[in-house]
Amino acid sequence: MKSFFLIGLIVLLKTADAQQKVNESVHLTDHKLLMNSVWETFDMLMYKVTTEKGEKVYTPHFPPKLAAMNGKTVSLEGYAIAMKSGFRHNRFLLSVLPIDQCMFCGQDGIPSMVEVTLSEGKKIRTTGKPIAVKGKTVLNGKDKTRVEIWIDAATFIAN
Questions:
Q1: pLDDT at 88 (0 to 100)
Q2: Fewer Cβ atoms within 10 Å of its own Cβ: the N or the C terminal residue of the chain?
Q3: Which range of residues forms the domain containing residue 58?
Q4: β-sheet bridge partners, residue 124
């Protein structure tokens, strides 16, 4: 009797494991990670940690390969994420994952995001679909009201 129970338990666990793998593969196709060499370079962003008046201060540090991107025109695909409420946006975040994906889940920490400002006051409506933009990279080490990497004067390009 114990052996039948043990065999049944093993079969049940194997079936559950197989179903979990199927569910994970469906999940991964729903949330396509849009990494490329530009995103990988942006992901090199680091922080110098200092203490001022008893508080930790995080200052962006741009390693040489990332620093060389400053002022360069890049093409980048990602998911637009609104920074303010409203339907249409001239300035938004671009992420390798959609907003539906928990930004703190998975491995290796928070995925890369950049701030995008569209050229000529153009605006977009954010959706769950990926977009592609082209613009000038700006590395921000001082303005604490904005993110560390911007794509400025951006235009849309075909995916």
A1: 92
A2: N
A3: 32-156
A4: 89
